Every structure is written in C-alpha cells, then in structure tokens.
Amino acid sequence: MEVFSGRPQGPERHPPVGRPRERRASLLHVRSAAGQVFLLQVVIVVLLVVAAVVGMMLQAARDALQQGRRASVIAAQSFASAPGTAAALRSRDPSAVLQPRAEEARKRADMDFIIVMSTTGIRYTYPYPREIGKKFVGTIEPALHGRTVIEQAGGPPLPAGKGTDVQAVVPVTDSRGKVVGLVSAGLTVKNVAALWLPQLPIILGSGAAALALAVTGTTLVSRRLRRHTHGLSPVELAQLYEHHDAVLHAVREGVLITGADGRLLLANPEATRLLGLPEDVRGRPVRELGLPDPVMRLLSSPDAVTDEVHRAGDRLLAVNKRPTYPQADRGGSVVTLRDTTELAAVSGRAEVARERLELLYEAGVGIGTTLDVGRTAQELAEVAAPQFADLVTVDLLDAVLRGWEPTAEGWRQLRRVAIGGAQRMVPVYPLGEVITFSPRSPQTRTLQEGRGVLEPDLRQAHGWREQDPERSRTALESGLRSLVTVPLRARNVALGVVNFYRTVDSPVFEPEDLAFAEELAVRAAVAIDNARRFTREHAMAVTLQRSLLPRGQPEQDALEVAWRYLPAEAGVGGDWFDVIPLPGARVALVMGDVVGRGLHAAATMGRLRTAVHNFAVLDLPVDEVLGNLDDLVVRMDNEEHTGAAAEDHEGEGVTGATCLYAVYDPVAGACTMARAGHPEPVVVRPDGTVTCAGVPASAPLGLGGYPFETTELFLPQGSQLVLYTDGLVEDRTQDVDVGLERLRRALGGSGNRTPEETCQAVIDALKPSHSSDDIALLTARTRTFPPSRVAEWEVPPDPALVPSVRAHCRETLRQWGLEETAFATELIVSELVTNAIRYGLPPVGVRLLHGRCLICEVSDGSGTSPRLRRAATTDEGGRGLFLVAQFAQRWGTRYTTRGKVIWAEQTLPDGTSAAPRLAPVDFLLDQFDLDQFDHDPFDHD
C-alpha cells in the first residue's frame, strides 16, 4: 500500500537521480510556485490598498451624507415639536415670532437653515431675511399628510456656500393632530477629502508592512515545502496526488490510515460513509470518533487482521488491517472495509419510523409554547425543518392573524408568517408578504379539498409553476424537488396552509410522508387556533379598556399632565386614571385598580370611572367621594353573588379594588388626597427632591363601613405629583419595596423635567421585559394662579353695598383688560351677592379668577343651595338665577366646611372657552323686570 504514503520506497530521502541542482538556485524565481505566490501577494496587497482608499472615500462621502440626513431630520422634528411652534403659526405675524427662534435653533444645531413655512410652502423664516415670503424649493406634499420628506435639492443662497444640499421637511401639528405648517431643516455636505486623507499614510504603511511580511513568509514557506516534498516539483506532486485520489475514490472499499500516535491520517469517502464519520476527522484520535467498540479496538491494536467481520451500526463489515511501514518501524496501519450486509433497506425504514415518532413528540412539546399566532407558526416551521423537510413555509389568513373568525372568502390571499429551513438557498416569498394563489395551485386545492396534496416532482407540477413562473424557475434551478402542502384546519375551519419542500439532496416525498405531514399539521392547527382566539379576546379587552380611558387632556389651568398606560401581555386588567376639571380652577386626579383581568375587569373599571366622574361633578370632599365609591363597589359585589348572576360569569366580584383621589387648588397651592388601598403617590419638588406624599393608608374599596383619611399638601409651583398602579413597582421577580426604591431613583433630579419626560424616564427604568400586570402612570406638574389674576373681598350683609361690589368688580376687570365682559360680570356678581345677603348667612365673600375663563365666586355661611326655576308673570322675584344661567357659560354650587360657594364661568373675549348660550335681549328683558327689584343692578354709582 505504498501508493498512499506519498513517499518513495525505503528510508532514503534523496531527490530523484538526474534532478538539476539549478532549480534550487532561486526560491522566489518568477517561474517557481513561491515566486508566483509572492507576485500574487503583491497584487493582492496593492488591490487591498487601493480598495481601502476607495472604500474609505466612498464611506466618508456616504457617512457625511447620512449624517446630514439624520441631522436635518432631528433638527426639523425638534423645532416642529418645540412648544409654541404650532401656536406661532396661527398668530397674526408668524415670521416675527419664528424668525429669531429659527435662527437661534439653526446656530445651536449647526445647521445651514431652518425654515418654517405655511402649508402652501410660503417661507416664514430663512437665514437671509430677503428670502422670507418666497416659495419653498422642495417637496412638501408628503409632509402635508403627516410624513417626513428627506431629499437633496437646491435653493436660494446659503451661508455655507456651495455643496450638496440635504434637507428634511416635517409637519407641524396642533393638539388635534391637524397639520398647521411645515418645518424644513438642512445643511450643505462639505468635501469629504478631509475625512480620509489623514488615514492614507496608515493604509500605505500597512501595505508596505504586508509586502515585507509576504517576502519573509514566502521565503520561509518555500524552504519548508522543499524539505517536506523532497525536492519534487509542483507538477510532480499534483500528478502524484491525482493518482492517489483517483484510486481512493474509485475503490468500493473503505480505506483508513492511522498514525503511530493513534490519530486518523486518511479516510476515503467509502470509509466515511460506512462508519458514519464526520467531515473533519483527519488528524483526530481514533478514540474520539465515536466508533463502535469492536471497530475502535481493532483500529487501536497493532495486530494485523484478515477478513474479520464486525458490526458498525446496521452494517456488517469485513475488515483487513496491515502496518504501513513494516520495515521502517514507523508505526501506523492501513485498514480496508467492505460492506457485506443486505439489511440496510429494512433498517432504514425502521429508523425513519423512529424518527417520525420522535418528531411528533417534539411537535407536541415545541409547538404552542406561546399564545402568539406568528410565533406558533414559526415553531411549526422550526420543528419540521430539517428533520422532515428542507424548507417549510406557513401561510395564514389575515383574519387569523387579527384574531377574527376565518372564512372561505380569504383563501386565495394568504400572508407568509413563518419560514424554516433553507430559505437562503431557495427563493421564496418573504415574511409578511400577501400571496395571491392561483386556482390551480396546490395551496388552493388543499384548502378546497380539505386534505393534503403531494407533488413528488415539481417540474411536472403545472399548477405550482403557473403561480409564479419566474420564481418557480429560479427555485427549481436552486435545487427544489418535491412538495407536500397540507391545510391547517381547526374546528373544521381552514386557517391557512403549511408547505413542506425537499431539495435534490433529499429523497422525494412519498404517500406515507403525506400522511405524516397531515398529522403534524393537525397538531399545529390546534395551537394556532388557540393563539388566534386569545388574540381576539385580548384585542377586544384592550379595545374596551382603551375606550374607557381618557382620550385627551381636558382644558384646565392648574396642572400640566402626562400619562402612560401599558396593558399586560397576558390580558388587560382594571387599571384606570382620570383628570377631571372642577369649579374654581381646581382639578381632580384619579388613579384606580380593579383586581382581576379580562373583559369583566375592564367593564367594572368603566363603571367605577363613570361613578367617580359623577361624584366629582357633585364637588364632594375627597373622603366622601371614596365613601360613595366604596358603597357602589359593595353593591356591585352583591350583584355578582346573587342567584341571578350567570354561573359562567368571569370574575368573582370586584372586592379589592383600590383608588386614589386627589384635588388640587391652584389658587391656594394645596392638594387634598385620600387613598383606598392604593400605592402612595410620590412628590418631586422643584429642586428635584423626591418624597412620599404621606397620605394615610385606608382599606380597599368594597369592604364597606371603613372611613377614609385625608391629607392636605402645599405644593410650590413646579412640583410634580406622580400617581401609579402597583404593576409599575411590583411583579413576580421583585418586592414592592425594591420597586419603590427604583422609582425614587428614576425620579431623582426630575425637577426640571416636563411631565412627559418624567413619564418616559420612569417607564424606561421600571418597565419589565414581560409585564404580568397593567401599568398606569400619571405625572402632574403644579401651576399656581398669580396674585395678579385673583381678586377677592368680603361683603358686609347690607344690600345697599351691592353697587360698591359692582364697582370693585368693574375696576378689577378694567385692570385685567376685560372691559367687554364687565356688563355680564357685574350683573352676575350683583345677583349672586344680593341672593347671598338676602337668603344666606354671613360672612359673604366675592372672588374673581382670571384664567382660561373668568370665574365669579360668591360664598356665604348657609348650606342651602339656590334652585333655577322659571318665574311666573305675577312673581316679584325668581329671575336672578335665570339671568346668571343665560350670561354664564356654566354655573353651580359647591359646599365647604363653612357654607357654600356659588360659581359662574364666563367666556373670555379671546375665545379660549366655548361661547355661552345668550338669549335674545328682548326675551331677557321680558323675563327681567327692573321695577320689581328694590335695588338697581345696573347702578354704577
């Protein structure tokens, strides 16, 4: 067997006789292999240097352009989202307001221009004022529809001079989402040579070093090769290798060569097949190859063997073994193997059956681990490939992905949701693409017939090929061979199809493969349908809950508010929050949590939120609001446990609901709070200090009969009140104390943040990767009424002093610049003060608040409330409140510990509130007879 050694017979190592010694004269001769390798290395180094320079130039240019695009978008969006931009666009002179802001923003952002324009493209700002009022040069149509436009365009002169102009156009929207203007920002991309020229010496130096290393390495390698090849030329070595390789591949016997150290030196393909060896066996010890014990002992033994029979897996092998160099005492051996069994086919079928059973078990365990439709489909593809098929695709109806009930109308159009196996080798429709199947395609047939379809040879599958001729041709050229497509059916309803493909490297599908594919699809379809039904129920619950939560922020002067709501992954709960404007410029903040999950919890949350709104309208104290809410929860619990309740009703009542109710008064800067089993709110002072509000803990709602303690905090302007539910600070992985400490750290230094920034910072710091409970977060920054916007005085209980009250009112309105509302305000104040003097108890007080609207408040010590009624023709009074109701936008009564306050809100001339309902003057005069009063409400003396 000397033919495998690659060495001449005998121990001599001299070169062949007659070989001229001149061939060793030059190691790097251009005609030698070493010289040619050296020249190739030189060419490669030069090409790499050139490619590096060119690549650096292109990358520098691309980076400069991309940097310009990002900077333009960031600058445009930042200025468009800046406070006051939308309001300035609606002002009378937008250029006067926006030009200095735009120039300041342009200089800070290092941009060449920031342009604010109208929706028709007329510039309001520009670095050169002479260009203001002209038409913007660029594309604005997509931005008018709410999208961002990035383009390269030329325009008027810029401070940066010439260059590639990169500009971005973004919309400016008001609070209702309407596009009120556009903002464009851009810059001139400079020459990129300065970015890559400093790197050129490094590249050239690296190339020179590489050339030096190439020379040294080639010389050393050439000398070593000549020692190992005994002076044989490359042509001779190639011929010798070709002869040896031809023999090794031609023989139908396995050949193994082992060394003296027990390592495998050579194994031909037949030996690799017979023993099931991996590809990288050369050089590995025989004991590490995982061979059967008889074969491993035979290879490790130094004894010669002749025609011994050994079992290797399901094969019976005849083995012969001889030493490689018996005369040289070098060790090692040559082993030949010959397959003598005819049981391979039977053993193969048994192995296939065992693998199928294992695959079905893996499918039962690995498919349906989550309730996500897309993930379940991907699990099916990963289980089936490559154990059963080389390529697996799953296509589902859009209705299944949305959680809807699937119908036969959508069979022609399916969406690709999962791909497993060799998708990189075979061109297939990508994930997410909607595929329209032809009527003759196997997918349409399998859906219509309700059974699997086998296409053993795709070259003859005309229906499959006509689906997409070009893609089908490319797939066949890539090696796609056969197909089994099976419908995914659950509850006798088709959800989609799963396609199993095999390539030319695998055997074609057979009828027994079709039966196995149908069994696999049945198991997967049940899991997919469960995920679909969960998706439907989850979407319904989320939709219901979001419809019950606030849609937008109400208009009010007391607080700057921001919130976040994150539903749980496993289903929605009963968390809710609210911001309710109250009379007297006050605002109520509500945060609640209903124990439970699903539609029942969301519906219960909606009932409680509605109840809190109704109780807040009555202007009750905070403890009474929680008391009334507690009574409502008790009644709801009783309803849940009555015999009339459905046996399968979800939930067990709402006992355990929690709620926090707070009322903030911006005039006094005080916040009154009470909580029923809810987590304590956190207060962030303007200096960034984080403290707990100190609200006493009371029993949760639904226990009945327990009082609710209140506390009053005085919050300076700029303080932030943070309300949250327990899902933010408590979960299965951490205790509530740990969550509270993390919340305090996240709020640290938040004194200068806006509520929106505070909410985002808290969510980023505390949001769990997998939320098991809803998270509701509400942040409110306090505002206070300036003393100049508040006017109040006491009124002695004397009707004769009413004219002086009107005079004070008139003077105050004149100082506020509200002369247009003086008539109506004097009338309202006159009537309310007169009623308080006549029918109430002292002390009588008057307070005017100038905010979004004008608020008139008259207080007295009586607990009786006036009632609006229509006076008869013969009545001498009863028309005062009617006039108040006609001239005021809203009016009402709230009770205090010292009596009551009758309040009325009026529209300001600038239209910040809705216009009041004004009755015709003649009708009012008919209802109001001045002669019937003993005081003159229009007296200005």
From TrEMBL:
**Residue ranges occupied by any PAS domain in the UniProt entry:** 240-280
For this protein, the record's Gene3D superfamilies field holds:
3.30.450.40, Histidine kinase-like ATPase, C-terminal domain (3.30.565.10), PAS domain (3.30.450.20), PPM-type phosphatase domain (3.60.40.10)
InterPro entries assigned to the protein according to its UniProt record, in alphabetical order: Bact_Sigma-Reg, GAF, GAF-like_dom_sf, HATPase_C_sf, HATPase_dom, PAS, PAS-like_dom_sf, PPM-type-like_dom_sf
Region described as Disordered: 1-21
Give the transmembrane ranges: 38-60, 202-221
The UniProt record lists the keyword Nucleotide-binding: yes
Keywords, sorted A to Z: ATP-binding, Cell membrane, Hydrolase, Kinase, Membrane, Nucleotide-binding, Phosphoprotein, Transferase, Transmembrane, Transmembrane helix, Two-component regulatory system
Quote the SUPFAM superfamilies the UniProt record gives.
ATPase domain of HSP90 chaperone/DNA topoisomerase II/histidine kinase (SSF55874), GAF domain-like (SSF55781), PP2C-like (SSF81606), PYP-like sensor domain (PAS domain) (SSF55785), Sensory domain-like (SSF103190)
Among Pfam families, the record links this protein to:
GAF, HATPase_c_2, sCache_3_2, SpoIIE
Location in the cell reads: Cell membrane
Name of the protein in its database record: SpoIIE family protein phosphatase
| Top-level division of the source organism's lineage | Bacteria
Q: Give the membrane topology, semicolon-separated if more than one.
A: Multi-pass membrane protein
What organism is the protein native to? Streptomyces cinerochromogenes
Question: Which residue intervals are annotated with compositional bias (Basic and acidic residues) in the record?
Answer: 10-21
